[in-house]
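step: validate -> pass
step: tokenize input -> pass
step: predict -> running
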Amino acid sequence: MKKAAVIILTLLLAASCTDSNRRYIRFAISRMDKQGLFAEGPAWDSVKTVALAARPDSLAEAQEIVAAALKVAGGKHSFILPADQATDYATRDWAPASLRMLDSIAVITLPYFAGIQDEANEYIHAVLDSLPDHVRGAVIDLRGNTGGNMYPMIAAVHRFIQDDDILRFRGRDHSYPITLGYICRSYGLTQGAPYDCPVAILTDGQTASSGEAVLLCFRGMAHARTFGAPTAGYASGNVTITLPDKSLMALTSSCDVARTGEEFCDDPIEPDVLTETPFEDALSWLGYTD
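step: predict -> pass
step: emit ->
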């Protein structure tokens, strides 16, 4: 009798575990179904059907199923971050923006940023507070900028952008603009008069995500030119969702749309001038002579 009770208890626990793992999958799939940029069409329907029919024996197996579905629903910019890495990811070290002047040419470096509001203000004002009244050209260096929060980056260089509608995010069933005025107001900035000068933007294979979004703010502007190497190809927006195991699911929900109407997402953005010496070539284009 005791042996039968143990068997029944074991079966009940196994069923409970299976149910828990299936709920985990259903939760993740429902979020992908609602918000994933690519969560539509035959490919997604097939992956979703297989995932929802699965009966994983362990959480690890359920996680693998969710991760596979995520790549279909969100593309290459989507990922899952284990719970024990989530805090470290959100508080990664970042370097401040910087400005130096070469005669009357502003050389601005915009690195990765993911900080709190006070740190964002520090990042922004490291550039804005040191800009002179007259600038005849600018180099905006986005090499190595792997992303983070694009808004402080854009705010720091807003005086080199001459129109208000700078970017648009397009999801499956929505589209909304990002304006320069909104960004400046978000940081309590009085929007400065734009400089009427040419701008060179430097990119490389590590320019990604928010770094690419900053680049696209200049796309289509007559006085802007890009130098360097193709970007990483993560020009899209993610939403972050906490899964039942406390891991974080970054799900791509929108692609970036430049003022030209061009859409960018998983493909690298080619520079106007493909070069191994982007800084030197940018200075030459701006008419700087040492």
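step: describe -> The chain has two domains: 2-74, 90-285.
step: cleanup -> pass
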